[in-house]
Each structure stands twice: as structure tokens, then as C-alpha cells.
Amino acid sequence: MVSFDKGAQWQVVSGAWDKTGTIQQLCVDDDPDCSLHLHGVHKKDNTVRRTSLYGPLHTSDQAIGLILATGNVGTELSNERDELATYLSIDAGWTWYNIANGTNIYEYADHGALIALMDSWEATNTFSYTWDEGLTMASCNLSLNGALEVDDIIAHPHSNSQIFNVFGYRVVDGVSKGVIIQVDFTSFHQRVCTMVDYYNWFPKAEEDQPFRQGCLLGQETAYVRRIRESQCYNGRDFETTEVFATCPCTREDYECDYCFENIEGHCSLTCDNYDNQTVNPATCVGNYSISRGYRLVADDKCDYNHPQALNLLPIVKQCQNIPESPKTYPTLSGGVIALIVVLVVAVIVAAFLAATDRGREYVKMLWGKLPGKRSEYNRPGGVLVEDGSSDAFSLNNDNEEEDFDPRR
Fold this sequence. Notes:
The chain is mostly beta strands. It is built from 2 helices and 24 strands. 8% of the residues lie in helices and 29% in strands.
């Protein structure tokens, strides 16, 4: 399976072609389950020292669009040497070419203009190479001292030189001895590439459409690549040029959102108790969104506002703030308020009467006027007397007559 949008969608690897692209390798009876199967992980051979029997998937950031791999065309991945081959894709996995039978160790040099291969299954002395991405192959013998078991072929880390280092070992008199052989192509020059040897290559995640060609992760990216048939070398200073333009969004730019799963090509809700808010939330600030089941693939930069774009992003709505009802507080009736005022005034007056002599006299006067109370204030000629006995009050009348004085 292969994905061109960071795993959002997967598809089988299409069948392979011969090195020239004229004959397609097909399964017996045209089985619909037939596809190209590739080994992706080294398989260690415990019977010998070599680290792997199968070449892995191999790419380089200096060999843009090129992928080398080991595999077979069929209904399942094979481990049989006579069923395996070395495949090369020159368009980042869309199309594959059978460039060599069997299993091989491989490496790029000169920005992918030069590719080297050696047998990884058994000891060999043959070093194979191609200047035209597998259209033609050439070979040479590395040593007169016998075949060697190849562990790896390594070029410059940036694949921009024309020198390969072959690592392996050779058994001599029953003893394994490590071997390093350098293969230098700098003195075996093809011609230097010129402008007519290059073209703009556009990686893509889907078949081209009229309004969207060569788009990957929402961008149209052009890389300067050497034409496959041009047998020339790029040189150490060669750099690919990148030109960016934004593409309108299509289904390839989306993956399933949280709690949604791709079922028969559509993202369907699979979670229980998923709260996909379709109405204004109770607590809403600014905006709220309603998922359609999709989201953009990470780092995808497509234009969802383009007239031809497919917009599957969540629906964004503005919060509709519902005005709150005014808060109500308990109110007091007029009678209760009047009663409180009377009580407050009474407390103030009582405090005043208790705190002054005049107030206390006034209280005594009021006390004497109460019904059943006897005092000098409610009997003529009566005088209030305090004698300390149980009768707190008594009348004292000396029956003396008082002369009338008209001057009073």
C-alpha cells in the first residue's frame, strides 16, 4: 500500500513495467488482487555475516522523486529469489520499473544521475551501474581476488559525488576478512548536463485534473530534474529548484476528523456519546464549529476558498448570545418598611431617655400615668416617697393651709 497524503488515504501499488515502460508485468489470469509488493525492512540472514538478503526501500533528498526497492508482482510478497526483482520509481511511487532481476544492494550518486547495484543474495564480483535511471545497465569486475559478500554500498551522504564505497567481506582459507573497495567515476565522465537535459517535474497525490495539476499537500511544487534518457552528470553544485503555487482543495487534502472513520471512502461517525455541537452551546464565546467529519492533513496548504475547491472543513458559526433575564431580588412591602422605621425611632428615643436626667423624669411621669399606678402625678397633693419598706410609695399630707398670694 502507498499513501501520498501522509496516510490519510491508501491505495495498492500499481503493477510494474519493464525498464523501458513498454511491457507491463501482470498476474496470471489478471487477478484483481494483483499488485506490486515491496520489502520494506531488512531481513537478517543468520547463516552468514551479511546483514540482509533484501534491499530496502531507499530514497535520498538529493535524488528527488527516485525510489529503489526489492519486491515482486503478485497477490502476496515473495521471499523466493527467482521471483524477486529490483524496481525503480522515477515519479515518487506512481510508476515502477523492473531494472534488474534478483535482489540487490543499491545507492545513488550525482543527485540520482548515477545508480549502482550489487547482488545482495550471494557473493559477487560484479558492480552494475546506470546513467539513465535503469534504461541501460553497464557492469565491471571489482577485483581479481574473488567474489565478496556485499554488506552495503555508500556514497556521499548528500548523494552529490560520483564516488561509491563498497563494504563487504571475503572468505580466505576459511577466515572472513573485511573488504572496502572504492569505485570512482569522477575520471569516467559522461558529458556535463546542459539546460536541454532538464525538465520541471511535479509530484502529485492524485491523477491530474484540469484545475489542479501536480499538487501534493495543497501545493504545486516544481523540481528541476534531469531527463531520464540524458546520459550526463549533474555535478556537485547542482541543486533542484522549487517553485510553489497553492492548489484548490480536493478530497485528497482531507483526512477523517476525531471520532470519524474512513468507511468506503467516506468519513463516518464511529464514536459513542460524541458531542458534535449543532446548535449554539450554552456557554459560547465568539464562534463555535460543527464538524463535517473531515480535517485538513497536517501541513496541507490547499486553498479551500478557491471556486473549484472542495471545502470539507468544520462549519463555523457565530455565537448567538441569548440576553439574560434581569435578576430579581425579594422586595419589602410598605407596611414592613414603616414598622422597621418605627422600631428604629423607638430604639433611638429609648436610648435618649435612658441616657439623660430629663429623660428619666419623663419616663417616671409616663409611668405614673399608667392605669393602676399611684404616684404624685396622678393624685392631688401626692408626693412620691421612698422609705425602703415594702410599700415603695406613700402619701404625706400635713394639712397645712397655704396662704393665697395674688402675686403668684
